[in-house]
TrEMBL record:
Stated name of the protein: Na(+)-translocating NADH-quinone reductase subunit F
Protein origin, superkingdom: Bacteria
Start and end residues of each 2Fe-2S ferredoxin-type domain: 2-93
InterPro entries: 2Fe-2S_ferredoxin-like_sf, 2Fe-2S_ferredoxin-type, Beta-grasp_dom_sf
Biased composition (Basic and acidic residues): 95-109
Lineage: Bacteria, Pseudomonadati, Planctomycetota, Planctomycetia, Planctomycetales
Organism encoding this protein: Gimesia panareensis
Any one GO molecular-function label of the UniProt entry: iron-sulfur cluster binding
Disordered: annotated segments: 95-119
Length: 119
């Protein structure tokens, strides 16, 4: 079972293949933002990897990060917990001024993942 370590929060066992955004909100009980509902449209679910950053990303994540000119972080809605990882949550409801974190993302990655690997 993969271990998710969240900086300044703790370590959690996560069901293999669970979306990182859901592991953060459901398992770690963190008020991680996900304004678009986990569809890789907004970048509010950003995290920084301390260890265990996946070496692949979905096309949706790549396109959204590039369009918003975001670097140095990843979208937790587009990452599956399939190995141990340590993250820093940088996008939380507390202090954001938003009424809520967003509606609960589906269990499966949306849009359907197509991995992108630089050639």
């Amino acid at each position: 079972m993969p271990k998710l370590t969240v900086e300044n929060v703790g370590e959690f066992d996560v069901e293999p293949g669970k979306r990182l955004v859901l592991a953060l909100t459901d398992d770690a009980q963190i008020d991680q933002l996900h304004a678009c509902g986990g569809a890789a449209r907004c970048t509010t679910c950003r995290v920084e990897f301390i260890e265990g950053e996946p070496d692949k990303m979905t096309v949706a994540e790549k396109n959204t990060l590039e369009a918003r000119e975001v670097t140095g972080c990843r979208l937790s809605c587009q990452i599956l917990c399939d190995h141990d990882m340590t993250v820093r949550v940088i996008s939380r409801l507390e202090g954001s001024g938003r009424a809520d974190a967003g509606h609960r993302p589906h269990d499966e990655i949306e849009p359907q993942p197509v991995e992108w690997v630089e050639k």
